[in-house]
Amino acid sequence: MTTTAGVDSSTAAAATSATSRKSLAQNFDTFLTMLTTQLKHQDPLSPMDSTEFTNQLVQFAGVEQQINANSNLEKLISATSLNTKSQAINYIGHFIEADTSAVPLQDGAASFSVTLDAEPASVVAVIKNADGDIVANKTLQKISGRQEVTWDGKDKDGNQLDDGLYTITVSALDAEGEAIESAVTVYGKVTDVASDDTGTLIGMGKVVVNIDKILTVRDSASVQSDTDSTDSTDTADSTDSTDNTTDETTN
Annotated region Disordered: where (predicted)? Predict the structure, then answer.
């Protein structure tokens, strides 16, 4: 994604309005030419009924008013769009939280948050690459509500992965094995801004979101990461086992 904006919806709408206005003017000129010709050649003893062309004049006036109203609305939309783009440029270099499950791996690290509707018996964040392959798992805290998570960008074998787009899928189950609803947001540094017919777009490296997906803006990349999440289920089970042994020894 580049910072050069393409043809957006407001530009296309303005072009449509200009075409409509031109077409109306041409039709009105044709109508006046025909009306003038008819009036010049009418029978003085049997003049034309003015009702029909009066109605046509009223219709043309109504269409013209509608086109002018649309034009004014398009100018307002264009001004609003330009203002939004100008504000969006200020995001470059800042860190944002976005409502999406696509997380950017930037400088070898990524951060995201997970919110659970209930306390789980097990919860794992599955991380996939752009091809949909699972590259890492993170066992999260068994708590309801929100927790923030960091990922060091390493795969299941400890290899550092390339920066880019990855996706987060959360698997959370209760004690009965029923799925628990979850929500994911991601953090990333804004690198560029663009626009298309869907609106203003914010780029975090390879991850692109619409501006209305931004939840928070911050100067720092730091998040309140949970300290109990691990990169593998086996490690988490080992940790739990150690904690239980400690408790038994204490008792």
Answer: 220-251
